[in-house]
Write a structure and sequence with these properties.
about 75% helix, two-stranded antiparallel sheet, mainly alpha, single chain, ABC transporter involved in vitamin B12 uptake, BtuC
């Protein structure tokens, strides 16, 4: 329906393949993280630090690569950095009992500050021919121009769907979100499970950071800024409960495509881009209000 409205408003834009190619290349940048963030929100927590983790992970990548390390080692260094940053968040939330929204704001400033200090505010071009192999894997075009990152979203969605719905870990995620005290009494290791879901967000943020950087062949110190709203909106529009205990990969996938369509449609239809944040904010508010209303009706 949303896409139909944009098609009617600007048919000359939305009947051309270019808009769909752009949609397939930009939507994965936040949707990859949104799929992992769904796990965190199902447990009743939130992570606001992943934009900074994207940039911090790229620092590790560039340092290892520029130091003469193998490309595969540089890739792993980025993933490990993101994973450790996420696990650190999870430890502070689950072990120390600090509210996730507060601590991840703090670690966001910490991670961003470390990244800016390490790079001295300078960007790094990613044009070395030695990077071409990884570039092709992450953001190359196949099958007539379809971006590889679109396929990565599909692969990751399938893997995380299996993790959430067909493993003990996924069951523990739902149990913790439904009632963490009951989950603990049932033998669920709440600490390790929460550290695991936060680490998953960190790892996916690192991957998204590399995809975003290779897409433009440059690592900017501001990498990740602007992804927070899209990512959170995708999760909540997809039906994940802000109260925990409910959510799905399919829902987040659909939510991400809706947000991506809105993002592309607002700009391509000639609407002032300054309205984008207002629209996304409204979408988040409406989706949350609807979930609360539905929850209250079910209770009654």
């Amino acid at each position: 329906m949303i896409w139909g409205l944009f098609l009617l408003s600007a048919p000359e834009v939305f009947t051309r393949p270019a808009i769909y190619a752009a949609f397939a290349s930009t939507t994965p940048l936040f949707l990859i993280i949104a799929l992992a963030l769904t796990f965190v929100i199902i447990t009743g927590e939130i992570d606001l630090s992943f934009p900074a983790v994207m940039a911090l992970s790229m620092v590790s990548f560039t340092w290892v690569f520029q130091s003469g390390g193998f490309l595969g080692v540089a890739f792993l260094a980025a993933i490990v950095t993101g994973t450790l940053a996420g696990a650190f968040n999870g430890f502070l939330v689950a072990k120390m009992g600090i509210p996730a929204v507060v601590i991840t704001i703090g670690t966001s400033f910490l991670f961003r500050g470390l990244e800016l200090a390490a790079m001295a505010g300078r960007g790094v071009p990613l044009t070395d021919p030695a990077l071409d192999g990884l570039r092709a894997v992450l953001v190359g075009r196949v099958l007539g121009g379809i971006p590889m990152q679109f396929f990565w979203v599909v692969v990751i969605a399938i893997m995380l769907w299996y993790l959430l719905n067909r493993t003990r870990f996924g069951s523990h995620v739902y149990l913790i979100g439904d009632n963490s005290t009951s989950a603990r009494l049932m033998g669920v290791n709440v600490l390790w499970t929460k550290m695991g879901v936060f680490a998953l967000v960190g790892a996916m943020a690192a991957l998204a950071g590399m995809i975003a950087s290779f897409e433009v062949s440059y690592f900017w110190p501001t990498l990740g800024e602007g992804t927070l709203l899209n990512t959170i909106a995708a999760v909540f529009v997809g039906g994940t409960s802000p109260f925990g205990g409910a959510g799905s990969m399919i829902g987040t996938l659909i939510g991400g495509f809706i947000i991506g369509a809105l993002n592309a449609g607002i700009v391509s239809a000639g609407i002032n881009a300054f309205w984008t944040q207002a629209v996304f904010g409204l979408v988040i508010v409406v989706s949350l209000v609807m979930q609360v209303v539905i929850k209250n009706r079910v209770k009654n």
